[in-house]
Amino acid sequence: MELFDAHIHYSQDAWPQYSPERAVEILRAAGIRKALVSSTPDSGTQRLYAVAPDLVVPMLRPYRSRDDIGAWTRDPTVVAYVQGTFRRGVHRGIGEFHIVPGDSATPVVRALVALAIREDLWLHAHADEHAVAELARSDRQAKVLWAHAGLSSTPDAVRAVLDAHPNVVAELALRGDVMLGQTIDPAWRDLFLRHPDRFMVGTDTWVPSRWTDVVSGHERTRAWLAQLPPEVAARIASGNAERLFATPR
Ligand SMILES: [Zn+2]
Q1: Closest residue by Cα to residue 166 from 212, 198, 122
Q2: Could you report the per-residue pLDDT of 38-67, keeping only the tens digit for each?
Q3: From 139, 170, 202, 239, which residue has the greatest number of CB atoms within 10 Å?
């Protein structure tokens, strides 16, 4: 089963160990047909996109360096950076970025939400259930991809967000709790059946060492997908992301 991985980074610290060619080789070896790719800085994404335009769907992070991760929502120079770096017809979204409750009211985040709506871009947000709800509510036209489905948010909390906010979809990078041992968690299974069009798979190569886990991680992804009705599994594996992110623009 081919996958659309909604959470890959090719950031500066990975470049010495993994050439763009090698990184693409790893993604293909994991059975990834397409991937949302972002990086700190954006040039990593562009190098990967140059090698595999059929595979890479570029996303633009608001981070020029790792130092931006903690303070970017209070730094107005980030807006000019994103506006100046954004390439229409290339970048499919803004992110992945990190927000906490309160951040969606800042002028910086509001400016990026406005840009995203104007350019029909996704907002890939690493946030807890409160912060993602604030982002979704800040403008109902905003299209939000919820990174890691909140990372530690419970299936109940994820369900509440998806029920309340039709403009949010979620990816499951680093969600080891979807499968308990070799069996899919019943609460997650119920949630996938309730919202079969709102989930997708992901990895998150946030540090270079994660590149060694891409192939084995997706063996595990396939093990829980196989415990879903085939039609639902196909949507979560690639159908949803294909529909939402790879539409020709
Ligand atoms: Zn990430």
Answers
A1: 198
A2: 999 999 999 999 999 999 999 999 999 999
A3: 202
